[in-house]
Amino acid sequence: MLSRLVRQILQATVYDVAIETPLDAAPRISQKLNNNIRFKREDLQPVFSFKLRGAYNRISQLPKSQLERGVITASAGNHAQGVALSGQKLGIRAIIVMPKTTPDIKVQAVKRLGGEVVLHGDSFDVANKYAIACAEEQGMTFIPPYDDELVMAGQGTIANEILRQWRDVDYVFVAVGGGGLIAGVAAYLGDVAPHVKVIPVEYDESACLKAAFDANERVILPSVGLFADGTAVAQIGEKTFQVIQLQKSDNSGPIVERDVVLVNTDEICAAIKDTFDENRSIVEPSGAMALAGIKKYVAEHGLENKNIVSIVCGANMNFDRLRYIAERTELGERKEAIYAVTIPEEKGSFLNFCRTLQGRNITEFNYRVDENENAQVFVGISLKAGEKERHEIYDLLKSKYDVDDLSDDEVAKLHIRYLVGGHANIENERLFRVEFPERPGALLTFLERLGPTHNITLFHYRNHGAAEGRVLVGLDAEDAKQNPDGLIETLENISYPYVEITDNLGYRRFLK
User: What SUPFAM superfamilies does its record include (predicted)?
Assistant: First the structure.
């Protein structure tokens, strides 16, 4: 299979529409990491993503009879634009089924490229099943976003370019969703340059490849985070996983390293800023994942003076998301830490608190008196020395106050910092994080399905310009005394992803 896929890569037709993207030096990040880093600039493709390669390679090799009937696919983003542009280039009908939650910027981009957009369902899975059904009914050809040999071969042309542009590559880092990109790249490198290590990088809320490696088989994740929406896939592709597990041509090991690097939201946001600082381009979260993975891998493995490629796989992002990314970047770069501190409610307490910090810059200070004549403080502090200084500050505060470090608490970063206002003391309150589809009517749907049975005691939501809205909701579970499972049954029936977090530290400190 490996040699066949390499032949398909060499015979790929991608350059009818795609360009050979540059492999740009990244001197700033190289100096910072003490390694030679280069960016493979797939964000410069006509559709601002590598997906065009695989889509066109698959469609252009269809027989004339199938081309005449047209093609159809399901996608919430970059694959959709690749199929639309391919259809335009070949003069055929191209239908793209997109979830109703798809950001308008991506819908309009597909329409501008001549694609026929059909909005269906609230998730990719629903849209995908609908597209497959339509293909059968209308006699059209379904174009998979990743789980197809010709799609993988199209993506694999990136590896061919990398070796021609830089012969001395040691590592290539690749963001992973369904696996089409890493399978194509690894197949070529594993056969032609088996000395090159291919390192997979996944968002920690949609790590389907790591789950498959751990189980030694494909598994379906119960839920996926949508911040890095370009790689938000619940199950690695069947064919891609077969390729990923293959051995290199010299039998020195698997073509893809099993050491999957998991990166979180803050680390991705920091990598978006790093990319901007390097070349003034703004990439989407999935487009920055490889660089986020490089930073983490280099630190954990002590790499020095290695030649490393980061595949910048896409740059399709709503402008509205930048405010959220800017907020989270400080935490991702460890330029800010946040703490919950209890200080005595007395004159001079704030002054004494600042003196304890020994002149460090306070970036945020939320203060609320509690019923015990103390004050609960939510404080952000600027860091100059990263993780080391964060722990030093914690030790300083711990010597005088009751303190908790909330820098890694997702609920604190998303919600608590905007809600500090005092304790409600509701005995039966239970706290949940609920994920809404970001579209008109989502909140009304939630409230209608919740019904009048449960009283809402807390509610916080901010629009982040993403496909999903994350909501913090408190519910009075008084009725649960008679029916302990009633509240959970109600939430299950609403069908929005949720998780109970009643024991969250920030909630207990500031709101419970």
Answer: ACT-like, Tryptophan synthase beta subunit-like PLP-dependent enzymes
In this chain, the answer to whether the domains covering 2-45+160-329 and 429-510 adopt an identical fold is no
Alpha helices by DSSP H, listed for 166-283, are 180-192, 208-215, 238-244, 265-279
> In angstroms, what CA-CA distances link 79 with 56, 100, 159, 321, 510?
10, 16, 19, 21, 44
pTM here is 0.82
Question: CATH assignment of 2-45+160-329?
Answer: 3.40.50.1100
Can you give the pLDDT at residue 324? 82
CA dihedral 70→73→75→78, nearest 10 degrees, is -50
pLDDT tens figures, 103-161: 677 788 899 999 999 999 877 778 889 999 999 999 999 999 999 999 999 999 999 99
Q: Is residue 344 within 8 Å of residue 309, measured between CB atoms? A: no
Residue 123 has which token pair? 């998730």
- Which superfamily does 334-408 belong to? Biosynthetic Threonine Deaminase; Domain 3 (3.40.1020.10)
CA dist., res. 446 & res. 48, Å (int): 35
Domain 429-510 has CATH 3.40.640.10: no
Strand, coil or helix: 1 = coil
